[in-house]
Amino acid sequence: MELAETSSPVKHTDRIVCSICIANYNGEQLLDDCLASILAQENAPSIEVIVHDDASTDSSVELIRQKYPSVKLLQSADNVGFCVANNRMVAAAAGDYVLLLNNDAALFPDALSKLLEQVEAGPDNILTLPQYDWVTHRLVDRGCLLDYFYNPIPNLDADRTDVAMVIGACLWIPRRLWIELDGFPTWMESIAEDLYLCSIARLRGHEVRVVPGSGYRHRQGASFGGNKPSQSKLASTMRRRRLSERNKSYALFICTPTPAMWALLALHALLLIAEGLVLSAWRRNPRIFLDIYWNAVTSVVKERARLRSTRNQLMKLKATSNRRYFSVFARMPRKLSMLRQFGVPDIGK
Question: Which fold has domain 2-218?
Answer without folding.
Answer: Spore Coat Polysaccharide Biosynthesis Protein SpsA; Chain A (3.90.550)
